[in-house]
Amino acid sequence: MTEETRNFGTEVGRLLDLVVHSLYSDREIFLRELVANAADATDKRRFLALSDETLAIAGEGAVKISLDKAARTITISDCGIGMGKEELAENLGTIARSGTAAFAASQLAEKKPEDRPSLIGQFGVGFYSAYMVADNVAVTSRKAGHDEAWEWASDGRGTYTLKSAARAEAGTTVVMHVKADAEEFLEPYRIKAIIKKWADHVALPIELEEDGEFAAVTEGKALWRRAKSEITAEEYNDFYRHAGHHFDEPWATIHWRAEGTLEFSALLFIPGSKPFFPVEERRESKVRLHVKRMFITDEAKLLPDWLSFVTGVVDTEDLPLNVSRELLQATPVLDKIRKALLNRVLSELKAKAKEEQEFKKFLENFGNVLKEGIYEDTGHAAEIAGLLRFASTREEATTLDDYVARMPEGQDQIYYLAGDAAHLKTSPQLEGFAEKGFEVLLLGDPIDAFWPERLGRYKEKKLTSVSQAGKLFEAGDVAEDVTALCEKLAAALGDKVSGVAVSSRLKDSPAMLAAAEGGPDLAMQRLLRRAGRPIFGPAPRLELNPAHRLVQGLMQREDVTEAAALLLDLARLQEGDLPEDPAAFVRYIAGIIAG
Questions:
Q1: Dihedral angle sign, alpha carbons of residues 7, 10, 12, 16
Q2: Which of 261, 304, 339, 557 is 20 to 30 Å from 380 at the Cα level?
Q3: Is residue 451 a contact partner of residue 378, using CB atoms and an 8 Å limit?
Q4: pLDDT by residue (tens digit) across 282-335?
Q5: Going edge to edge, which strands form the sheet with 294-297?
Q6: Which CATH code is given to the segment(s) 223-352?
Q7: Hey, which residues does 176 pair with through a beta bridge?
């Protein structure tokens, strides 16, 4: 038997080093690449068998994987199209020459897209990922329709050998001699986990040999590629739990196939309950991207972060990938897929929003995450805001559209109060709004301090914090003794306030804090203060109720220094904040009680 030794057709050392150390970020990728090659070879043979029955495959044409711990080998075998001697030299002896690309160019150029087989390989480097875990690789192949078989073998160091071999049937067998630091890949449980992760939905059966028998590892059911009419609710639920590691049932299932200039299949789920770990901790979309059923990545960020709770799969044949298939190119195709997915999810949410009770459950789980979208995605901020429900001084839950529809004549702004939920309804900020007949939205989530200002307007109505609505309640003529008290209090408080003024909005409370003109909303100030962050802009203004007996009593005092600090602390407490000096506040109150 004659054995030939040949040199690789490129700078093999540099390219193999690139493949092993730079091209792929995870060693387990080798199995995905070799399974993809086997699937392509089988699909090529099936395609050619349509016009040549002698090439037909008996049975399902499974990819078979065997492990031999004693010999330290992994064997992957298929019954695909196979390769002859020179094809082995051309496809494996020249790095970055793709047999799939050559087949597509020669056999498929004249075929209609719907008549072409779904081929995965494009760049001709996936095979060499085997050298990430192997120090020697041997490939035995027999081309369909031919009797002779050939073996290609190399340690990847610059040369390879070719010699005649024996193989009972057409197809290809890859035998990898595993490196000392890659013994984990000789364990059946590890191989199963990798196949489940990367190739669970490849149509071709993948079988693993254990105890002398081959058993299927994959389901081979790409549910998203089937017609909705063929899928039961139980199948959807099972896939939802499998793909997203959920234990409940989905709140919504979104399944469709986009056709036209861009084609892809999508199967997305909105969970029926919150995850065990807060969505906020994840903060990025994990929708899985497949190309021709083969899993590519779950880090393509197919949906924006504010839809990070959506799980599922997108499968396309139109997406160009780079050679590693892990790092996606920023292509217009990917951008179009992202846009289509976003619009489809938004349409589903709008439709489901009509079912009030069901939508309430969704908002309880993910309403806060949607609010982040108002802040982050200005292009869709109004759409998102229109989906949300808010408590108000009149309703337990209202939409912004309903709020605007109820606005009385004379009201030209949407008023809201953001802060701690427990203190909103009793806030002195609300005094005076009821008298004017103005409804106020009560926003009790931390994110509510941020998004209203970013949204700015809704249906041409400006969103205004009640703490910034001082001009609405500016007092007219003020008595001299009240003016004098305001001046004394302002002097005593110094830079803790930007000023002290009389307000007509207060009815029951002696005083309250309001944002100074041009200053940040009070809820925002509290969040920044609690986070230890600097607050830019003027300090808040202290507003007084001159009809309150506490304020009237202060008018009689000459020295209001101590009372000014107490009044400021009382205003803070009413907003759910702490006194500036809690210990001093307690001592002062205790002294009053003691007489």
A1: negative
A2: 261
A3: no
A4: 578 889 888 877 777 788 899 999 999 999 999 988 875 443 444 565 678 888
A5: 252-258, 264-270, 311-316, 288-291, 294-297
A6: 3.30.230.80
A7: 74, 137
